[in-house]
Amino acid sequence: MKNLLRIMIFLSIILITFFYFDSSINENDILEAPRQADPLPAQEIIEQPLVVERPAEGVSVYIGGSSEDWIADYGQPERIEPSAYGYEWWVYNQSYSNYMMVGVKEQEVVQVYTAGTATDASPYNIGQVLEELYRFTIIEDEITVKFGTNIYTFSLSAEDRETRLLVSFDGIYAQLYIDKEDGMLEAVRFMDAETLIRHQPYEMMYVGDLLVTAKPSSMLQTAIDKANAKQVVDLTNVYRLHHQQRPLIVNPAVSMIAARHSQNVARKNFSSDEIELLTLEERLESSSIVYEEAAENTASQYFDAAEAVNGWINSEDHRDLIYSNRFNQIGVGVFGKYYTQSFLRQEPAKAEKQ
């Protein structure tokens, strides 16, 4: 009798534990971009004499050239979207294996971002291992950039050297986005000096004038937020394919919930008003969304979608959700520099592809 009582107590504890720790909902903590000091003026910056020859082939050769030349070779983009930095994004997502985003400003190509394994990103190949990159690439802790009469120095942290390298060529620059868990190159961004300086992706010192980017109007910012959300979806699916996982289908209703959550997180951080942040479970239930399992990644202070996704894949818990095979749907919402990425398993799938 005593043994039976002990067994019943033990089973009760298991049931209570299961009830309170139900794994059908998983919300990761918000991931903040690495904090950087404000750009600092310097008395003097010594220009680096080392000049690495610019690649002679691949998508980087278009940097500084006309958008007409690009269209002649690659055709019209699937989407044209605004950015917060004065250029338009031309998005090529018809084939994820050739996924590219091209920054165009005043009919000039100022940057090319690619995560497509079939894209010619010479001298790099998506999927290369970090050790190989270090063997044939000159990696420096500081990169000096001259723009007009101004000089800027970017400093890479130890984390940067594992997750997003910066390489200087003659007249252009490359950011190499690494998945530090498996040490593989996931994406490359080639850009001109002005674009790099306006992004300020690393700690920066300067001599001369600091480039100031105008703050977008509220209407333009809304369009930028929607563009960033679509790009997060694209890149999530591109990265999943890199890791042999199926693409996720967009659930518009979940995207609306994610957008409101990003806005509420931003308001909570910048407003004196008491703003209650609902859990993912509460948000889904209030919208009558049926699901088998759900999870969520959030991030803040990343300057664009590519940076946010790179941040997530280099945080263990966030990375696990992006590459999980448990989900079949996704919803993404962005508000300024606040990102929400929600995952769902819904059987049968009722979402419509975006």
TrEMBL record:
Chain ranges of the CAP-associated domain: 63-202
The SCP domain, residue ranges: 233-335
Gene3D superfamilies membership: CAP (3.40.33.10)
Name of this chain's protein: CAP domain-containing protein
Organism ancestry: Bacteria, Bacillati, Bacillota, Bacilli, Bacillales
